[in-house]
Amino acid sequence: MKNFDATDRKILLCLQQDARQTMAELAEQVSLSQSPCWRRVHQLEESGVIEGYHAHLNRQRLGFGTTGFIHIQMENHTPERILAFEREVAALPQVVCCVNLSGHYDYMLEVIAADLEAFSHLVHYQIRCLPGVKEISTSFVMKEVKRTGIIPLK
Hints:
There is one protein chain. The chain has 154 residues and is α+β, with helices and mostly antiparallel strands. It is built from five helices and four strands; from the N terminus they run αααβαββαβ. It has helices at 6-17, 23-29, 34-46, 79-90, 116-127; strands spanning 66-74, 95-100, 107-113, 133-140. Strand 2 (95-100) and strand 3 form a beta hairpin. Helix 2 (23-29) packs across helix 3. The radius of gyration is 20 Å and the shape is elongated.
């Protein structure tokens, strides 16, 4: 974390914990007046450190009772095939996260669905049909122990 002082780090931690607070509340927490605090937040936004502000939604209460992880091995790694796969994965709203991995599998998808039947349908009729998919391994979340979007800044 170059070029960030203790105040910048404190601002970032406070915003991660509650991005809805007013500038006056944030300024008080980080021991600044409102104008310098606003300037620092604006600078962090402009530099791309702060990418946006989001509401954390409860998946269960929205009807997504099943969460699974799908590991995917690709049959080949041509740039065209990879771009086509990534483009189609990005278009699937049930895929809440997709990462490219090292090791045996090339990608891991975090997928949400209403239930096991909906998850199974998604895997069989959409994920397996994606360009270049060779092998799939699926794991289901039994219990969520920790989920946070907070990045440690100490």
